[in-house]
Each structure stands twice: as structure tokens, then as C-alpha cells.
Amino acid sequence: MFQFFRRIKTVVSSELNSMIDRAEDPVKMLDQFMRDMEADIREVEQAVAKQIANEKMLKRKSDDAQALVEKRQQQAEQAIEAGNDDLARRALQDKNEQANQADTLRESWERAKQDADQLREKLDEMKKEYQQMQLKKDGLKARAETAKTRTKMNRTMSSIGNDDSKRGFERMEEKVLQYEAEADTSEDLSQASKTLDDEFAVLEKNGVDDELAELKRKLGKE
Fold first, then answer.
1. With contact defined as beta carbons under 8 Å apart, do 115 and 5 qualify?
2. Closest listed residue to residue 66, CA positions, set 114, 89, 100, 93
3. Lowest mean pLDDT among 15-24, 40-49, 53-62, 198-207
4. CA angle, corner 111, sides to 109 and 112, nearest 5?
5. Mean of the pLDDT values across residues 138-154?
6. Can you tell me whether residue 194 is helix, strand or coil?
7. Which of 67, 85, 91, 172 could pair with 76 as two cysteines, CB 3.0-4.6 Å apart?
8. Burial label, 116 (beta-carbon count in 10 A; 0-12, 13-18, 19+)
9. Burial of 136 (0-12, 13-18, 19+ CB in 10 A)
10. Which residues touch 48 (CB under 8 Å, ≥6 apart)?
11. How many Å apart are CA 130 and CA 5, to the nearest integer?
12. What are the residues whose beta carbons fall under 8 Å from the beta carbon of 126, sequence distance 6 or more?
């Protein structure tokens, strides 16, 4: 369990480029590694819970056995005071048997407590490592997204200056120049097509305008 968790940690700690070289999607792989870690932690949590429950059970039995030892001791003393040596003897015999059981149970409880403490320490260590890997995963994912964006931008920028784009731009520029030349030519042709009558009509119009202005001046209607 713990060896597998450490193996996962090592993989997550590897450089981003090594995952890319293996044609793996770093973002998806990192998410999968974190899910594997979470599953390991849940499994260890269950093991720790069972061990703690076992430790508590052994502790309770050990305490009960020790309490019975003390009870038999008191009963033996009570029997002696009552002058009943036979009853006192039987109480002491049972006390010795219970003491042996109490010692065995106490040893089992101490071993169980030691195992539970070690599992709790391992679980705490795994959770700390998981938090560290979570932070590192977020950083690696951000780096992966940045790298993808940079690659996309670089490809777009490189396509802007390629020969096809450049030739197409120049072709459109030539069309615009052609449109402008056609507009200038049509204006020149329009000017050249005016007849003498058209020019004299302009002069006559100007003469009427001058006469109208003179008349309005005389009548004070300016």
C-alpha cells in the first residue's frame, strides 16, 4: 500500500516533458494520479479505523481482567477475615489465573496500540504528501495549459507570415489600387465628355445669378 503510494508520488513528481514524450495528456494523467492517491488514503483510513477499534477492544478486556484480579484479591482478604481459608484459597487461585490473562491481554493491547499509532502516523504522512502533490498538480496543470496556449499562438503567428498569406495580402492590395485607378479614370472621362453647350450653359447660369444679385442690391433685399 505505502510502496504503491510512494510510487505514485514519484510519477507525479516527474517533469512535465517526460509525460509529453510518452504521448500522454499531462492534465488527465495528473488527475488520475490524484484519484489513485485518494483511493489509497481511503483504504488506509479503513485499516486505521479497524486497528483502533481492535486496540480499544483489547484495552477494555485488559482493564476488565485487571479489575477482576483486584476484586479477587479483596475477596481473598475478606474470606480470611471471616475465617474461611478455603474460600480465600479459591479466590487467590482465580486471582492468579486472571492475572495471567490480564498480562496477556495487556501485552496484546500494547502491540495493537503501537500498530495503531504507526498506522496513524503513516496516514498523516500520506495526507501531507497528498496535499503537497495537490499543490504541485495545480502548478503542473497551469504550466501545461500555458504551454498549449503558447504553442497555439506560435503556430498562429507563424501562419500569418507564411508565403500564402503574404501573397494573398499583396493580391488584395493590387485590387484596391486597381479600383482607385478605375475611379480616377472614370472621373477624367466624365470631365472630357462635357460639350461646348454644357460649358456655355454654366456661364449663362452664372450670368443670371449675377443679374439676380444686382437686382436684389438695388431693391435693398440683400
1. no
2. 100
3. 15-24
4. 60
5. 80
6. coil
7. 91
8. buried
9. middle
10. 116, 119, 120, 123
11. 10
12. 2, 5, 37, 40, 41, 44
Grid cell at residue 109: 493491547
Give a three-class secondary structure readout of 151-162.
HHHHHHHHHHCC
In one letter, which amino acid is 80?
I
For the record, the C-alpha cell of 143 comes out as 504550466
Determine the pLDDT at residue 145: 80
Of 62, 58, 81, give the one whose Cα is nearest residue 70: 62
- Give the predicted TM-score (pTM) of the model: 0.50
Which amino acid appears at position 137 of this protein?
Answer: K
Per residue in 61-81, pLDDT (tens digit) is 999 999 999 999 999 999 999
52's grid cell = 483502533
How crowded is residue 68: how many other Cβ atoms within 10 Å of its Cβ?
A: 17
Dist CA 47 CA 212 (whole Å): 114
39-63 in b/e burial notation, b at 16+ Cβ within 10 A?
ebbeebeebbeebbebbeebbebbe
pLDDT digits (tens, 9 = 90+) for 194-204: 556 666 566 55
Whole-angstrom distance, CA of residue 4 vs CA of residue 11: 11
Q: Which residues fall within 8 angstroms of residue 77, CB to CB, at 6 or more apart?
A: 88
Cell 462635357 locates to: 194
